[in-house]
Structure formats: C-alpha cells, structure tokens
What we know:
- The chain is α/β, with parallel strands linked by helices.
- It is built from 14 helices and 10 strands.
- Strand 7 (171-175), helix 9 (180-192) and strand 8 (197-203) form a beta-alpha-beta unit.
Amino acid sequence: MNFSINHFENAANEIYKYMSPSAQLVWPLLNNYLGHETWVKHENHNPTGAFKVRGGIYYLSELAKEHIKSALVSATRGNHGQSIAFAAQKFGFDTDIFVPCCNCASKNEAMSAFGAKLHEIGDSFDEAKQLAKNYAEDKKAHYVNPFNEKLVLGVGTYAYELMLAHKDFDKIYVPIGGGSGVCGLIKARDALGLKIKIIGVVSENADAFYQSLKAGKIINTQSANTIADGLAVKEPSPLAFEIVKNGIDNIIRVSDDEIAHAMNIIFETTKNIAEGAGAASIAAAIKEKNNNKGKKIGVILSGGNISKNAYIQILSKEAA
Length: 320
C-alpha cells in the first residue's frame, strides 16, 4: 500500500466534487490550556460529521468507474456506515449496513436517513462484521471491508490537507479504531517526505492495537467496552497492523474519564461537539501536555457523532 502525492491529489479532487476540505484551526483557549500551539483538524465539520465520509466517496467513485452495479454490504459502529450510505446515494447503490445491537441510536438513524437498510445484530462490531460478510456472500452482494486500500487513500486526504499546509508539526495525535485514519496519516506523511511523529490513541478498554504493537504481533482482546464507540475494535486488521507497526512512533492509552474530560475541554475552548473517538486525540495531548511545551502539535478531531443524551450525560457528570 504505497501512495504518492499524485494518488492523494487525485483522490482529493474526486472527493471535493461532493464536499469541501475540512477546517484546520488554532483555538487560543485550547492553546492556553495545553500550553503549546495546537492545530485541530475538524473532520467533525464534514457532511456526515466524521472523517470516514472521504473514504466512502472515493471507494464508491472507483466502483462506479468499474461499472459495478451490485448492492453493497458493510459493517460499522456508525461513521464508516454513514460514509458508505452517503456515497451510495450519490452513486446510485443500494446498501445494507450491519451494526451491533448496542450501537448508538443517533448513528443508526443517520445511516437510515442516508438510505441504508440497517441490520442490528450481534453483540460487538467484530460479530456484526462477520455476519455482514456472510450476508454479502449469500446475496452475492459487494462486501465493503471497513479497512481496505481505497478507503485508506480516501480518508488519508484529511491528513494530506493538514500536513501539506503544516509541514513543521512536531507530532500529530490520531485516534485508532479500525485503523484507516491512522494509516492514512502515516501514508500521507510518507508521501510528503516528512518526519512528523505520529502518536496513535486507543481506549484503555479497547487497546488491541496497543497490545499488538507491544507484543510485535496481533493480539485480540476479549472486550471493547468504551464510551468511544469509534475505538471499540477487538481484532486489528492484519494489513492495518503492519502499516501501524512500521510507521507509528507511539500509541497512548486513555481512559474513559480522560476522554470525557477532553470532550468537556473541547466544548469549553472551541464550542465544538466531539464524540468519544473524536476527543481521544485531545485526551492524549492533555495527558502529554507537559512534554509538548514549545512544540507545534496537530490533533485529529475525527468526528462529532454522539447522541444528545449521551453527550449531556458526559458533560453533566464532569460538571457535578
């Protein structure tokens, strides 16, 4: 999976037919809180409220060029499914999306609103993914693996935008769920020939990538119970793990309390809503702020898709 500058530029040009580049902003109050220059990449401002939409647009644009007309099937905790459903509307595909029974209701509603047929089944993302594969095979539909080369190239355009504008970052913090976001960041950095340190962030309760990197081989966890549903992955993709192992500088674990605190800080200092996974990078920056004084840091606010009740509960708990 080797991408050049031309790969990213071509993917971006295709994606920009359906959305604009996302904002990358400095917030003085957040700078004051962290004690260093911090640039926030606002993927929460995208059409589906998350970075994944880039991958869906690019992937389906390529399918359309290949004249593939079969129905699409995929599995998700929400943001990947929304990206596929959003793009399917644009390119005329029927879509079945599998989610676990515990999934965020507002994300489910958004996928349905984009036209996807939703299947709520299984107790985890990994179980829903296997059931989606089985369904696609039975129906002779096109299965969209949540981690694949075209999705990585598509979502990696967020990283290309950010680093093309700021080649002098010392480090960038990025949440790790399925791995497309962090792998896109690694590949964009390498295409640009930069030396920026990439720091992955996982939940303490869903730390398969952390354990795998530490062991030097893939480790699957028994559970992935975290408020950051975008990080709730028990089984790392082998391809994603290889890219992360060879390209990342460190992985940091953050607790649910640290994620909740970061969600509060983001709202207080930027007036943006961040879902758990979207706040994880800021949670890690807060955790390491004493090590980053005088440095220029990037943080990926990967999404803002969280239910109203869950968000109010998290903010209210910290205020209590």
